[in-house]
Structure formats: structure tokens, C-alpha cells
Design brief:
309 residues; alpha/beta; 8-stranded parallel sheet; globular
Length: 309
């Protein structure tokens, strides 16, 4: 079975203005590197729009209506100082969430071995009721609830290696004993959450805060010694990766020292867990990553491993 790549041109139309780090070139750089012959065997699909039913499994309809009512006809509307909306932002956000749901459907149906969803805006900072940190809808949580509600995969797990803690996903999963969230992230750093003491209402949250300057060795220790044992104990039916690449040493928004090889190795480790526990079902979703070269090359290394037989 092939690896599936899900994306959509509308995700390039979410304009953030000026020198905003979360800009269309981030996604453009990833899609361009995936045009090389190394990736000819990827199966490619366009992301559909998320339906209201898919969105409301995570966000109240009032939240969705409020977002859509503030999409400007021209210019920008600032949700906060980090999170602008522009005329095509609503379409982009719907495609981002819908793309994750489509990837889930394909992986569960065995139309693809696994999937990478190359979309923006990212999602892991969006709580049930608050967009923030460049994020509008929580794409990975919406995909997780698609797996549960449509396909009966009761235990869903998200591993988040973005350099920023995914406070939104943690918020959504906190009280759910069948939803597991684990994160490695620089700490302290935006959004200020993610201490090791934050473990969820059912001990279903594993936070691995890493000090500024941490390299791949420190990252792998957290993965090997804390996250993977907890993930194996949880025994997920499907595994999601919130794949931010901003812990790379080149990234301008943080101070970590991961390399392309670290992302490849981490991918291989999580694939081994998924193969043993959930039939290899992995859906990986682009989150952060703000150096174009580092993000593209790290995403490419991640996908090359997903494509391995």
C-alpha cells in the first residue's frame, strides 16, 4: 500500500500578512520538495472541506459560526496578535481539518498504509473554544474524532513533537480516558503550558518539557523512556503525529537543535509501535516549522520513512 499525501491549493491562500512566520511559503516549500522523483510513489489526494458534523465533534457550533463570521471580505481580521484571518482563511481552515479526516478514512480503509497531511493553518494550539497561536481548528483532534465516530477506533493517540506545546490538543483530550496525548517541546516557551505535572484527568497526558538548547539525544531519551512506554501501555487503535518541524536547529522561533536525521529516527520508532499495536495506522499532520529549508527537508525525511516497506 502507498503512503498518502493530502493537501489543497486553498491552504496556500490563507494570507497572514507582512512578515508573519506562518505564511504560505511554509507549505509551498514542503510541496515543492515532494515533487522530486523520490516521492513519485506517493498517492496524492486533494483535501475536502470538513463538514459541520466533523467540526462539531471537537468545537461548539457557536465557535465555528464565530470564526466564519469574522472572515473579512478584504484585508485582515486579528483574532489575536498572532492569528489573523484573511478572505481565504475559512476555506483553508476547512480544507486543513477535512484533509485529516480524509486521510483517516483512507488509512482505515487500507487505501493507504499511512498518510501525511500537508495543510495550513496548523491546529494544535486551538482549544475547544479558543483559536490561538496561528491555529483556527484543531485539525488533529478533529481527525482523531473521525477515527472514533465513523470507524469505531475507540482509543486514539497523538504524539506531538512540535517545539511548542500543543495546549489545544491537551485541552480537548484532558478528560477523555480513551484519548492519549504526548508532547516533547521546549520549555519554557509559548504557550507556557506543558509541564510534566500536567497528566490529564486519567493519566492520559505525557508531557516531556525539554530545556532550551536540547539536541536529538535529549529528544530521543524522552521518546524512548517516557512517551513510547506510555503509548504501548495505552495500546491505541490509531496513531496521529502532530508533525511540527520547528525544533530543528535552524528554526527562528525556538532554540532546539534537532536535525533531519532526528525526525527520520523518531518516525521510524513510532512506525514500529504502530505496526505492533494498531496495524501500522498512522496519520501525520503538519503543524509548525518556520525555516523553509529545515521544514521542507525535515518533512521530506519524515515522509521517506513513512514510505518505507
Amino acid at each position: 500500500m502507498p503512503t498518502l499525501l493530502v493537501s489543497h491549493h486553498d491552504c496556500l491562500e490563507h494570507e497572514t500578512g507582512g512578515y508573519h512566520p506562518e505564511n504560505p511559503d511554509r507549505l509551498r516549500s514542503v510541496l515543492q520538495i515532494l515533487e522530486s522523483e523520490d516521492f513519485f510513489m506517493l498517492h496524492r489526494e486533494e483535501a475536502p472541506r470538513a463538514t459541520l458534523e466533523q467540526l462539531t465533534r471537537v468545537h461548539p457550533q457557536s465557535y465555528i459560526d464565530d470564526i466564519m463570521s469574522h472572515i473579512p471580505k478584504q484585508g485582515y481580521y486579528a483574532i489575536d496578535s498572532d492569528t489573523p484571518l484573511s478572505p481565504k482563511s475559512g476555506e483553508a481552515a476547512l480544507r486543513a481539518a477535512g484533509g485529516v479526516c480524509a486521510a483517516v478514512d483512507a488509512v482505515v480503509a487500507r487505501q493507504a498504509r499511512n498518510a501525511f497531511v500537508a495543510v495550513r493553518p496548523p491546529g494544535h494550539h486551538a482549544t475547544r473554544t479558543q483559536p490561538m497561536g496561528f491555529c483556527i481548528f484543531n485539525n488533529v483532534a478533529i481527525g482523531a474524532m473521525q477515527a472514533r465516530s465513523i470507524h469505531g477506533l475507540g482509543r486514539v493517540a497523538v504524539i506531538d513533537w512540535d517545539v511548542h506545546h500543543g495546549n489545544g490538543t491537551q485541552d480537548i483530550f484532558w478528560n477523555d480516558p480513551d484519548a492519549f496525548y504526548a508532547s516533547t517541546h521546549q520549555f519554557p516557551l509559548y504557550p507556557g503550558t506543558g509541564s510534566a505535572e500536567e497528566t490529564g484527568a486519567h493519566n492520559n497526558i505525557v508531557n516531556c518539557p525539554l530545556p532550551s538548547g536540547s539536541d536529538g539525544t535529549v529528544f530521543m531519551e524522552a521518546l524512548d523512556n517516557r512517551i513510547i512506554p506510555a503509548l504501548k501501555n495505552f495500546r491505541p487503535h490509531i496513531l496521529f503525529i502532530s508533525a511540527g518541524f520547528d525544533a530543528h536547529g535552524r528554526d527562528p522561533l525556538a532554540n532546539m537543535k534537532l536535525t533531519v536525521k532526528d525526525y527520520a529516527e523518531a518516525t521510524r520508532k513510532l512506525m514500529a509501535v504502530a505496526d505492533s499495536l494498531c496495524g501500522g495506522r498512522i496519520v501525520s499532520v503538519l503543524e509548525g516549522g518556520y525555516d523553509l529549508i529545515a521544514t521542507a527537508s525535515s518533512a521530506a525525511a519524515h515522509i521517506r520513512v513513512l514510505m518505507e516497506n
